[in-house]
Design brief:
The structure is a homodimer of 873-residue chains.
Chain A (H helix, E strand, L loop, with lengths): L5 E3 L8 H16 L7 E4 L1 H9 L6 H18 L12 E7 L9 E5 L5 H9 L2 H20 L3 H15 L9 H19 L7 H14 L4 H9 L8 E7 L10 E6 L11 E6 L3 H6 L5 E2 L3 H4 L1 H18 L3 E8 L2 E9 L4 H13 L5 H6 L6 H5 L2 E2 L1 H6 L1 E5 L1 E4 L2 E7 L2 H9 L4 E5 L7 H6 L2 E4 L7 H9 L2 E4 L4 E4 L4 E4 L2 E4 L3 E5 L4 E4 L4 E2 L5 H13 L3 E5 L3 H9 L5 E5 L1 H4 L5 H9 L3 H26 L4 E4 L13 H10 L4 H11 L11 H6 L1 H20 L8 E4 L5 H22 L6 E6 L2 H5 L1 H7 L2 E4 L1 H9 L7 H9 L16 H15 L4 E4 L7 H10 L3 E4 L4 H14 L1
Parallel strand pairs in A: 14-15, 15-16, 16-17, 24-25, 24-31, 25-26, 26-27, 27-28, 28-29, 29-30, 30-31
Antiparallel strand pairs in A: 1-2, 2-5, 3-4, 3-5, 6-7, 6-9, 7-8, 9-10, 11-23, 12-22, 13-17, 14-21, 18-19, 19-20, 21-22
Chain lengths: 873, 873
Amino acid sequence: MANKYVYSFEEGTKDMKNLLGGKGANLGEMTNIGLSVPAGFTLTTETCTEFFEKDEKLWSELLDEIYLNMEELERKTGKKFSDSANPLLVSVRSGAVTSMPGMMDTILNLGLNDISVKGLAKLTSNEKFAYDSYRRFIQMFSDVAMNIPKVRFDMLLNSIKQEKGTELDKDLQAEDLKRLVQGYKKIYLDEMGEEFPQDPKEQLKLSIEAVFASWNNPRAIVYRKLNDIPDELGTAVNIQSMVFGNMGKTSGTGVAFTRNPSNGENQLYGEYLIDAQGEDVVAGIRTPEEISHLKDQMPQVYEEFLKSTELLEKHYKDMQDIEFTIENGKLYFLQTRNGKRTAQAGINIAVDLVEEGLLTREEGIMSINPNDLNQLLHPAFDKKDLENAKRIAKGLSASPGASTGRIYFNSEDLLSAKGRGEKCILVRQETSPEDIEGMISAEGILTSRGGMTSHAAVVARGMGKCCIAGCTEIRVDEAEKIIIAEGKTYKEGDVISLDGETGIVYSGEIKKAQPELGEKFQKFMTWVDEIKELGIRTNADTPKELLQAVEFGAEGVGLCRTEHMFFNLERLPAVRKMILAKDFVERQEALKELLSVQREDFHELFKAVGDKPITIRLLDPPLHEFLPHSDEDRINTSTLMKIDLKELESRIESLSEVNPMLGHRGCRLAVTYPEIYRMQARAIVEAALDVKAEAENLNAPEIMIPLVSHIKELEYVKGQVVEEIEAVFRERNERIKYIIGTMIEVPRAALTADEIAREAEFFSFGTNDLTQMGFGFSRDDSGKFLSEYMDKKILDYDPFQRIDQKGIGKLMEIAVDLGKETRPDIQLGICGEHGGEPTSVEFCHKLGLHYVSCSPYRVPIARLAAAQAVIVN
Amino acid sequence: MANKYVYSFEEGTKDMKNLLGGKGANLGEMTNIGLSVPAGFTLTTETCTEFFEKDEKLWSELLDEIYLNMEELERKTGKKFSDSANPLLVSVRSGAVTSMPGMMDTILNLGLNDISVKGLAKLTSNEKFAYDSYRRFIQMFSDVAMNIPKVRFDMLLNSIKQEKGTELDKDLQAEDLKRLVQGYKKIYLDEMGEEFPQDPKEQLKLSIEAVFASWNNPRAIVYRKLNDIPDELGTAVNIQSMVFGNMGKTSGTGVAFTRNPSNGENQLYGEYLIDAQGEDVVAGIRTPEEISHLKDQMPQVYEEFLKSTELLEKHYKDMQDIEFTIENGKLYFLQTRNGKRTAQAGINIAVDLVEEGLLTREEGIMSINPNDLNQLLHPAFDKKDLENAKRIAKGLSASPGASTGRIYFNSEDLLSAKGRGEKCILVRQETSPEDIEGMISAEGILTSRGGMTSHAAVVARGMGKCCIAGCTEIRVDEAEKIIIAEGKTYKEGDVISLDGETGIVYSGEIKKAQPELGEKFQKFMTWVDEIKELGIRTNADTPKELLQAVEFGAEGVGLCRTEHMFFNLERLPAVRKMILAKDFVERQEALKELLSVQREDFHELFKAVGDKPITIRLLDPPLHEFLPHSDEDRINTSTLMKIDLKELESRIESLSEVNPMLGHRGCRLAVTYPEIYRMQARAIVEAALDVKAEAENLNAPEIMIPLVSHIKELEYVKGQVVEEIEAVFRERNERIKYIIGTMIEVPRAALTADEIAREAEFFSFGTNDLTQMGFGFSRDDSGKFLSEYMDKKILDYDPFQRIDQKGIGKLMEIAVDLGKETRPDIQLGICGEHGGEPTSVEFCHKLGLHYVSCSPYRVPIARLAAAQAVIVN
């Protein structure tokens, strides 16, 4: 055979997607595994290509093959085209290699004509249905195949409805519909100069031509361009016999899941209607019955159904979402696909499928989207309640969870409201370290500015607290203590709800559900850990965060930010004293005070972390972040510190910066004030010695110097730190092991990592800053335009959420290669916010990093992503 | 001979620096070209190494060689050690391979003892001189060779001075000095337990050991560490016979330049004193005579002097700075080196030397330091006046020149003072675009903040106006209109002077000299242009700047910043209207207004630039820069624009950014508001069509899209620009050529330059921003800590002044390589501030860029640097 244009479903398999299109291959597959699928055949994509070469007309050789298959179809179904007793009707559908939903044309009920419409009426005992189907077919065919303006049909329909005094199509009776069919046929004759084709062969030929041609309709072309689908691929066309569930008491239609999609229980789950079409189930006029009732109503069908679902799960190795129709006691499967499910169900089903032997552990692990675990770790709003809630605005889903509370606009107000027993939401334009206490006490956090890595977002994720950031649709007036959204004003004390999963802010309270982590989840994560190669650490600044993370499976701390210890309200005065010191002596005094509290901090942390590794980053933010921002706070500080207010303001002014992100911070502070890092180094080592003396196991502390851009910066600062540490060792006459490394977060450091590695025993990628500097995007400001970037498809995703592998990833690659050149065993990790994002975790795995570090609540996600990275690479 | 430790000067040449040290090799060279140099010999650096291996003692084999050379020295000079009639005295000096000025020890007048001091007294007819020399020798020897505390000698000297009632050494008489010698010798005996050595051989042995040993004195070790000089090199030691110019009427001493160092005239220039020592010339008690008088006083010596200077210039191929002594009618050259000169003299001498055939053009070109041209292009303060001026503070020499004027603290005050005929200096904490009018009218600009690439610095350089930026030693209170420096206050209207060359601020007026560019300068620059390969363009925003630059040799415009056109006071209202527009329609109206003025701007620019290339950068700064900053300006704007003040403030607030450097600017603006770039593109093309219609030659305008970080940004924005341009072509039914390219100023753009080059027809490196983002240094804030970085030798130079080749240069290299991969003929240039800095220009040459672009006044510097880059590479 020179050219085979047509494949019956029996001839297709899922591997023939390129030739038969996605839908065609799937119908073939279903047929071949023995499911009862309405019979049909597929015209190949190659046919489509040839069709366009032949001026968009079907040719005789092809038509012969089609008609042969039509005859075969009549044979298989026992129905006949144009038959007044048992008419064969078919659908004509496009089916490209890559799904292009809704982009191309479809024709249903082909085969209806003046004769077969009577057959259909008889079979369904429903004249109204039959004529409605016929009039729809005429309209669809006229539109799609003949390009007759739809408006002509609509006008006629409307005039009849008007005449009958009704507004809905469904109120028309059989007689009206018959009249409509007459009218439609007249329009056709009018427009085309010939009668509406009664010959199903003719109908089919014209319909196939129309569906092929729709490959090149404008919306399909645009869609392909947007999605990088080549124009020359072409589409396949599927011709499938139609089945009807409305042929009486032994017919019906329904949908089912092979397992329970909300909890994963291994039990058939679904519903059906007797003597009904698919639309009837959706319309919700009649109440469907539970699938289990089918057992009584049609035991044979139910039997077959059960067998088929088993077959399906074995074959597709996943829970299936099925559409089926029963026509005169015969069961047909119209569609099957992997069913959507809740995260909890997902885990449970995966574990069951593995234990049932249907999936390997690897397949089970691959079946879960790591991000879905968020649902498992955080409370969520009740879905029903959510549907009725009043939406105020949408921002960035900065930290998952769900929370309801009264709004307060600063820490002080919030703390006293909480003291009164209220549940509170902290609302700010953006948060700063001064707001920490309020954030701790709040149920959730809402900011009108800032992106996914803004202060609010990072801190909230660390706390596992719901946060919506960068909600530019609202205006926050902190002075007036109001939110303005779409002209409406929300005052202090008003109740709102935040959905951290979607970023939507609602007014009023919404019911919540708290998730539970079951046994199966634990089992699943054990499998995950056995497979993954990356270490998973956490970003944690307090023992509480650390212990939460360990519970979630963290294997150590990849980032302990010491500045968060400084922001504690009790310590802030000493910190400010240090910053505002007029000279070295005053600064030393303040540092002495800080030394003892920092030593305590580290002591607690070391005891909590035990023998797991911990990386401590020395002070990073610019000093002005610690100084009072509000007038009130300035006055208080001036009194407390006995500094003239004007003098204080002038010091604050002189420390202020145009671009603090690129300013005097990180190791640059230590170049100017080495004594700050020396104090921190001393606190770390003294605490470590104390903990060791208490006979606790302790890993060598990893001291991390941030924001290095040049080897000589690191040399200088490391020199200071080592000198202080050695002094402690001499004083105590005792040593411990420690290692010193650096963040790679400045592009220049990545580009000169071979030099940097001479001094650094480890690298930890700070991909937040690397993204900020690599793109030149301020994380605090880019929220304003990044959404536009995504709308306009300039960026496919927010690079602060996912590592931009082409640009920022290239910097990381360069740094890894150069670093290893100098120090082949250099320890490599990442502690940027990306450390808990699945595609970024996979990238880190491929880069050969040793660990990723992320906020506690993302640890399980990172673990799963790390395991998946091993499996797919 | 197994080991040769000692070389007579006759055996040395300048190529033997490694063996004989710099000074030894130089003395050898001078001797060998036939100059009369006081005889002597050199102990090699290898001797030094062996000396340290032998426990810092001279060994017999070496001593034998030294004494042999001493005898030879006596023979050559006709003098004898320890002689009462004609004693030989020598100096013992260190001389390392790399000069370490002042770091090691020297002993003079060695050979003096109780006998030879009498011979010296007789020969010079000056007992006082002889005994003074003797007592100095004893003290120096005791200190250097014997480590006897200097304080003992000083105490004795003081007691004798007290006794004589005098404060100055020179008031002591011969008898006093004889007593001092006795006393010094007693101290020596006291300390050492033996007499002061009378044997010159013994003196020499101990002195050589001391000078060798001084290689390892602490200050020498520190100096070597700081300057990366290896410790194992060692030093040579030079023993040279001393000559005396104070031996009567046929003796004398002086200094001379072979040409005039202040204007370059080819005429001997210098002065001398008869019967005097070198100190006498420096002391200035007697007035030296002009060198030409020597012709009459000692015609033969003068003859020899002339011949020798000719010899010297031929040999060293440069103007020489000579120290000489005449001893009893015999001329000796003590030192010769290339003479320091003014920039103007430098050029004139170089041109003369080339025309005299002494230098090739290349050598002539290499003899000028490009940065010295600044002196030629800008006025400078009178040197004498400068010495007496009162220094207020020192800042960054942001833009060269010299200016004096009354201080004003804002544009308005300054403009009205200027209206009264005053010369004014604008003083600000930092300037912003709002200050432009004041900057234009000021003589000079002083800011207390901001670095070498701050707004003030960049704009001032563009204007060729003197500017001192980042002067952190002063505090500027703009509200009170005062400067506070070291406790002193300077009020509005006070006169100060700015030296842009040194960054020093003076109080009061200082006289100025205006430079002239002579014929020789023009000739020199012609040679430069013949050799250089890089094109030199200029950064110019106005026809005035452009014409100035062309006069300085600019070959086109590499950067025309369109925002500077927006800051014009007359246009600001329209710009603000555009920014504050509530919707697309309002914005369109404002843009229409701007279109017509922008069209005019470009029209003028195109006419000025003629057939030279011009690169126009579309709007770059964040919009909030254009909005009113001061309360007063806000109120005015609110009235003018009929916007509620509160509404205005809320708009300004909503546009404000945490890190504007990394904010909503550059092409990001055009992603949000494509209509702004479309307006600019239309203005450019309409103006070009108009100019073409006037039958002017015009190059294809180069349209530059700034701040691109991602290929899709460029695709989108370029798409908008091209669409608008094509619309203009259709409307006018006429086309012109144009090209579209981008800045490479964001690290990610450099890293993905292969992609970017698909859309960009040219790259222009924006190394300011590339440095900011590559290092993570805000140019506005880093001034505060960068000086500490340089003090601590963490950075060798300010990376905003010179390209950091290892890091930022690497990004450029990556971008060049990737860009050429995609588009081999891509046009490559640089328009950052580095484009006029010589080492950066050389780097750009090596990178293979096609041109550099810099501010007008740096164009000649860039030309010269470009020529030098060709010669040395």
